[in-house]
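Severity: low
Component: inverse-folding endpoint
Summary: output formatting inconsistent between runs
Steps to reproduce: submit the following structure tokens with default settings.
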């Protein structure tokens, strides 16, 4: 009997090694990691330069407290990351993961308004169909019902607006002016709550696990940013999944030329080599918060080893031109999937940007009717794919908060044409096994 509290029910294979896009278990079976774990592994497994960065920094020192010392890798990482960020004079606050980054961002937003004398601004506006983390504040902002349900008595501080979900768009204007309609709804909510009470609006540039790489219409981001600016509401871009090249640009908001007030990041920031998240404030926010005093902190924030890993990953992304590789391979993969699954009766939609791709599975393609949850369609596809030596990332509840099945693909960026073909063929085989 294992003494490990498991993430999921049932026995799991034991991983023993990984390199590039491959993971091998103790029985010698090899899997193509087409999910990048949980859309995390951007530069690939087994990178020697990153492993060396961990070893070298630990040989110097592994831990000093962020309130007592700064460190060379921390300072260097922030300096080298800053020019790539879509904001002016960024200030980087490293933490241990995406959920901590979101909690930090919320506190930054509140602290900024306090520094401006706007004591009443405390409310967070977010979207249904979103995912921002599993700590209490991040979960409250999230709009993923299956994750919220057990903890509902603790939630409902955040204000929610409709999801940006073009496949199942609720807007009467669809497909024309959907973005503007969403912006008008956001403004209606802000005005109903009272702009003087709203601190920030948080959204994923491209919806992640909850809606499976749902891309907003091109008029969405410029319109909602304009609303927030007009009402003095800070814009928080949750780039935990989309950041560090995953969508074929350095950050998801780069597709629309948006410059947020605060960015949260994680996952690809360390490519899974170390628990690392980032809350990044633009200069006008960061300076105001720092000058007034930021009542916040974690034991492992501003960690030297974590930022040494982040720096090594950043160098691999730049030196290998991996963001461009993600864009090019993403086009090949999504085109291949659309060709292979064009006539599949249960494939409702294939969407995404770069190597962040979602496949929505439906009972009826014409009506978009979802499978019932007790059919466990996403789980069946993932299980069959694993039998075929392919790892996919499942999600459920997209259609109505209970029903709705998705699988996501988010492999490492450096893919050969042969691997792209293998991913397409094995994904199609797994889906056809259900259909």
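Observed output (run 2 of 3):
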């Amino acid at each position: 009997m294992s003494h490990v509290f498991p993430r999921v029910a049932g026995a799991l294979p034991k991983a023993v090694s990984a390199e590039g896009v491959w993971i091998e278990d103790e029985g010698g079976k090899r899997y193509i990691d087409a999910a990048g774990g949980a859309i995390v592994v951007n530069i690939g497994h087994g990178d020697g330069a990153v492993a060396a960065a961990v070893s070298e920094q630990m040989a110097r020192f592994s831990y000093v407290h962020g309130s007592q010392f700064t460190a060379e890798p921390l300072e260097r990482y922030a300096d080298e990351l800053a020019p790539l960020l879509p904001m002016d004079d960024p200030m980087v606050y490293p933490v241990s993961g995406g959920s901590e980054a979101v909690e930090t961002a919320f506190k930054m937003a509140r602290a900024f308004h306090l520094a401006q004398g706007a004591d009443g601004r405390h409310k967070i506006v977010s979207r249904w169909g979103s995912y921002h983390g599993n700590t209490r504040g991040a979960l409250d902002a999230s709009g993923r019902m299956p994750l919220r349900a057990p903890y509902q008595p603790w939630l409902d501080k955040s204000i929610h607006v409709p999801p940006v979900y073009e496949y199942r768009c609720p807007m009467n204007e669809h497909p024309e002016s959907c973005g503007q309609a969403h912006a008008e709804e956001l403004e209606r909510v802000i005005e109903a709550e009272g702009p003087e009470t709203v601190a920030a609006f948080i959204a994923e540039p491209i919806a992640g696990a909850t809606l499976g790489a749902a891309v907003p219409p091109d008029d969405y981001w410029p319109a909602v940013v304009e609303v927030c600016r007009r009402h003095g509401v800070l814009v928080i871009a949750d780039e935990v999944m989309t950041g560090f090249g995953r969508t074929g640009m350095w950050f998801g908001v780069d597709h629309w030329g948006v410059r947020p007030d605060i960015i949260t990041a994680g996952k690809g920031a360390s490519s899974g080599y170390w628990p690392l998240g980032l809350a990044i404030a633009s200069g006008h926010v960061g300076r105001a918060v720092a000058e007034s005093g930021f009542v916040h902190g974690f034991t492992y924030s501003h960690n030297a080893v974590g930022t040494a890993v982040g720096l090594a990953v950043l160098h691999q992304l730049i030196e290998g031109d991996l963001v461009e590789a993600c864009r090019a391979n993403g086009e090949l993969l999504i085109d291949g999937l659309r060709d292979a699954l064009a006539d599949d009766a249960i494939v409702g939609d294939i969407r995404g940007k770069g190597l962040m791709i979602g496949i929505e599975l439906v009972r009826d393609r014409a009506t978009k009717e979802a499978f019932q949850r007790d059919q466990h369609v996403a789980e069946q596809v993932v299980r069959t794919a694993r039998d075929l030596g392919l790892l996919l990332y499942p999600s459920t509840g997209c259609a109505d908060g209970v029903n709705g099945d998705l699988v996501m693909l988010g492999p490492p960026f450096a893919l050969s044409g042969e691997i792209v073909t293998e991913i397409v063929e094995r994904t199609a085989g797994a889906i056809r096994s259900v259909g």
